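User: quick one, fold this
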Amino acid sequence: MTTIDRYQCRLPKHLLDKAVRELNEPEDNAERLKAIDSLREAVKKSSPEMKLLRDDDLFFLAFLRARKFDQERALIILQNFHAQRQAWPEVMDKVISPAVLTDFLSVGPIVPLEGKAKDGSTIVVGRPGIGENFSLTNFIAAAFLTIQTLAMEDEDTQISGITIIEDFAYITMDTAKQMNPSIASKFMSIVQDAMPVRVKSLNVTNEPKFFDILWAIISPFMRQKLKNRFRVHGTDFSNLFSEVADRKVLPHMFAGSGPDISVEQWKIKLLGESTVL
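Assistant:
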């Protein structure tokens, strides 16, 4: 790798200070590059046959930031990230070749917002059940593709993490029946052990009466840390405004005054303009 290819820190001061304070990130770029090189070498030694999705500095930096520059833990999540791409082909084949999700992404199943949460994290809105002939595996693939894109390309998200708001207004009992313990186990394993991003808050709104059934299936696979960050808001968004994000940031679906979600813009980001056109 030549010098011109190396990562150069251009973070604004407040974000750099946050990375240093919260993630143990070296402030000196030379030290940061040493950490990146250490992780790169560890991968070569421990998993020489593993074909990396990418090999650039920002890619490795995502895993280091996700585990607060703990080299051993960053290596584990990087290995898990690549192992999961082989272990769940029904989902991961769509992540690898996302053009098959074109029609599904057109209804906006999962889209990040323009504004940030109160803690500076990136807000991602999910709408499980939306669209005709809803497929849970399509939704999970779209979710992982979205989180992967944010985690790999947006340094703000790498440092500040993500806040998830799930709008359950579209879920029916038939949709809910697609969830089972096997899917829940695989899903939570990737979220907690294989994605280079920190989930700062997980929120559910407009949950149906049968939400307890879904919770009984999913919750056994959630660690206590994530459970502690889980909130159910129903149709009362007051706590969403006070604890998660300002009203001016949230779209009208959450009784906010912020801009609508950018469905088409995000689809183009995920698939590329040529694919969409």
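User: anything notable?
Assistant: The domain at 3-87 is CATH 1.10.8.20 (Helicase, Ruva Protein; domain 3).
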